[in-house]
Amino acid sequence: MSASDDLAQIYHQRSQETLRLWRDPAAAEAHRGFYPEKLKAIATGIQPELTQPLQTLLTELQQRVLDDPLADIMQPAHFHLTFLAITPSRYDFAHPPEGVDELRKIAAAHCLGSELSIRDLRLVALPNQLLIAGIPQAADVARRKAFWKALAGSDWAEPLRARYNGSDRPPPFWHSTLLRYEAPTLPDRLQQFFKARINQRYGDITGAIRLRLVTYNWSESDLLA
Fold it and tell me: pLDDT band for position 189 (50/70/90)?
């Protein structure tokens, strides 16, 4: 089985786990909130042009959300896909991060300006979130691993570990979060939205990787490199 097949299987299994939990919502973990709204993190990623399939998907999702105060949906102008997040949300708006010269050099050596292409986009469900996720090229997987290794050997090792709960490798998903819901699970109407589209594909996206200081949903984004 190829690496892309492995990743597609990971996405499938994660959604199947969520579907099983939705059938037994009592098993869901208590909701403790998502990322802080008023703090920023350092991340690398792309902000590609929103394709027609993705525009349609977001419009359809917005129609299901309506004015639900518990639903936090990505706005089209903020659409992005993360290459690698580097820190937790820890920087306030008044005090930008210091000492980022080393980080700029590491990022420039491994990913900045490189084109990231993600294909076969599909919805992936978490208990209280909907993601759009896809398959990267092998070169991008290798590039992210090398970037991670360089960061882990630098002064940025501690925030990287903190961002990924002590993991020693990059996360498997290549995704963006379209919807967060402030409850342990999505309501039935959004569960049905996902179930109706579980096998749909939403094309490909491509963009240049940049280093940014961002809020959790990239609604506030400052270019660092």
Answer: very high
Kindly state the tokens that stand for 138.
């092998």
User: pTM for this structure?
Assistant: 0.94
Phi, then psi, of 68 in degrees rounded to 5: -65, 115
CB 1 within 8 A of CB 7: no
What is the domain range of residue 81?
3-223
Number of domains composing the chain: 1
What are the backbone angles phi and psi of residue 112, rounded to the nearest 5°? -60, 130
**pLDDT tens by residue, 127-172:** 999 999 999 999 999 999 999 999 999 999 999 999 999 999 999 9
The residue whose two tokens read 């993360």 is: 82
- How far CA 221 is from CA of 111, 147, 213, in Å, comes to 18, 21, 6
The C-alpha atoms of residue 50 and residue 203 are separated, in whole angstroms, by 11
CA 162 to each of CA 29, 89, 111: distance values in angstroms, whole numbers, following the listed order: 21, 10, 21
Cβ(147)–Cβ(106) under 8 Å? yes
pLDDT in tens, 26-52: 888 888 888 888 899 999 999 999 999
Domain harbouring 200, CATH code: 3.90.1140.10
